[in-house]
């Protein structure tokens, strides 16, 4: 029997945190320990299929709703970050779909009227319904407001007709609802005005989705959405007409934070895998983890992980305390976590060498999946622009 035949990563790291979050983390770990095995994770990644049953198991454990009441402010950011880090370290594709689900839930808590909250929130909380968030388009992600070609025309009967195309939409194939942004007015002032947010059942006639072949997060379909005269009633406008992009910008802070949490999870999962390997795999009569070159690289990666964790904690606490410095902390945390994830997965691939390349073991999956958070939901370059301007007080660089 060789190490690769029954390899298991090092056990999950113990994390010191307030009792409330330690208890939540324990609950997430218990849920994953009950339902997830390395074989299950590998199977869905290889099949490029979404593990919808696992999503339901996670929702059944109350991990979508968390502490969010139907008409309250929504689940806390610190709680979301705990869940997403744990999922990121294991079923990463499900973690990414949860980022979207939390975002949909948050947008409904923030901008949904009483009726919309009644209709949409309960099934999203329970996991009976899944949400996708459709903003990016073929001609632009970073500068999507200027590039947006999807239009919503207000018809005489009060409803809207939406036509256009959305690109890279995570989970759209399996989603029950889309939160979709479309241009409702030409704007002379700023490109981010004149855009409206709509709640659209995915089964609405005129919607066609196609899967895009991607290199990572293969357990969650990234989709093209083609929209051809999709009729949406006026009561499905979420928030204010023409103000949708500004409303989303406020919520993207939470998405950055949650992206940081998943990236931290990927880094941690890769580190636990690398440590397990470094202890067990032998060369020249000793564990490969005893070679200083590898050991120091692992140490440097773990410094990045722990730094990202502290920034994330600070950002999540600031976000739970209300408006203020939370957006800058979230941007710092996102950048630190994406760096921790790409560094750790790179080191992990070196530690495992040939076995890192083997698709039966998880390091190659972490290595591929880690790339997502270098550009989503906001690219690292744009995140740096933001930090340069808001944190360092330098002139806007674009
Ligand atoms: C797996 C996956 C899942 C996704 N999920 C979703 C989803 O669910 N919903 C959704 O709406 N979108 C989603 N996206 C899209 C994602 O948000 C975009 O890819 C991202 O916003 C970047 O846009 P882009 O790819 O068009 O890059 P571009 O905007 O074309 O950027 C190209 C390069 O130019 C740089 N750049 C652009 N402007 C500047 C500037 N001012 N200063 C410095 N550098 C700059 C960027 O940083 C980047 O390096 C997903 C993408 C992927 C691949």
Structure described in brief:
The chain contains twelve helices and ten strands. The protein has 398 residues and is α+β, with helices and mostly antiparallel strands. Strands 1-4-5-8 form a four-stranded mixed β-sheet. A four-stranded antiparallel β-sheet has the order 2-3-7-6, with helices on one face.
Secondary structure blueprint with pairings:
Elements: H1 19-35, H2 38-47, H3 52-60, H4 77-89, H5 92-111, H6 114-126, E1 131-134, H7 144-147, E2 151-154, E3 160-170, E4 177-183, E5 195-201, E6 207-212, E7 222-232, E8 237-238, H8 244-280, E9 282-283, E10 286-287, H9 292-320, H10 326-356, H11 363-369, H12 380-390
Parallel strand pairs: 1-4
Antiparallel strand pairs: 2-3, 3-7, 4-5, 5-8, 6-7, 9-10
The structure holds flavin-adenine dinucleotide.
Flavin-adenine dinucleotide (FAD) binds at residues 100, 133-136, 140-143, 168-170, 214, 217, 222, 372, 375-377, 379, 381-382, 385, 398.
């Amino acid at each position: 029997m060789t190490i690769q035949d029954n390899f298991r990563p090092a056990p999950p790291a113990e994390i010191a945190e307030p009792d409330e979050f330690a208890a939540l983390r324990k609950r997430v770990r218990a849920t994953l320990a009950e339902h997830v095995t390395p074989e299950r994770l590998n199977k869905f990644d290889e099949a490029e299929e979404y593990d919808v049953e696992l999503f339901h198991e996670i929702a059944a454990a109350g991990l979508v709703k968390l502490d969010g009441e139907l008409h309250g402010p929504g689940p806390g950011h610190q709680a979301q970050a705990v869940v997403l880090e744990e999922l990121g370290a294991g079923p990463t594709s499900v973690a990414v779909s949860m980022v979207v689900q939390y975002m949909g839930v948050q947008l409904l808590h923030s901008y949904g009227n009483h009726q919309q909250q009644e209709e949409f929130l309960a099934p999203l909380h329970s996991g009976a319904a899944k949400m996708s968030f459709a903003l990016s388009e073929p001609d632009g992600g970073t500068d999507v407001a200027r590039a947006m070609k999807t239009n919503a025309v207000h018809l005489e009967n009060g409803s809207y007709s939406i036509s256009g195309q959305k690109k890279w939409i995570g989970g759209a194939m399996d989603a029950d609802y889309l939160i979709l942004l479309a241009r409702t007015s030409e704007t002379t002032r700023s490109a981010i005005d004149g855009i409206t947010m709509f709640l659209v059942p995915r089964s609405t006639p005129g919607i066609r989705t196609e899967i895009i072949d991607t290199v990572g997060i293969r357990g969650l379909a990234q989709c093209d959405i083609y929209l051809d005269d999709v009729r949406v009633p006026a009561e499905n406008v979420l928030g204010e007409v023409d103000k949708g992009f500004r409303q989303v910008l406020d919520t993207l802070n939470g998405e950055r934070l949650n992206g940081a949490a998943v990236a931290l999870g990927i880094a941690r999962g890769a580190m636990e895998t690398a440590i397990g390997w470094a202890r067990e795999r032998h060369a020249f009569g000793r564990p490969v983890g005893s070679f200083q070159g590898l050991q120091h690289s692992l140490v440097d990666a773990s410094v990045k992980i722990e730094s990202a964790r502290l920034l994330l904690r600070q950002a999540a606490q600031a976000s739970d305390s209300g408006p203020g410095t939370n957006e800058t902390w979230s941007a710092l945390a996102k950048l630190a976590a994406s760096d921790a994830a790409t560094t750790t997965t790179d080191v992990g691939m070196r530690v495992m060498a040939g076995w890192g390349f083997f698709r039966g073991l998880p390091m190659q999956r972490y290595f591929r999946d880690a790339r997502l958070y270098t550009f989503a939901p906001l690219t690292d370059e744009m995140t740096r622009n933001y930090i340069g301007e808001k944190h360092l007080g330098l002139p806007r660089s674009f």
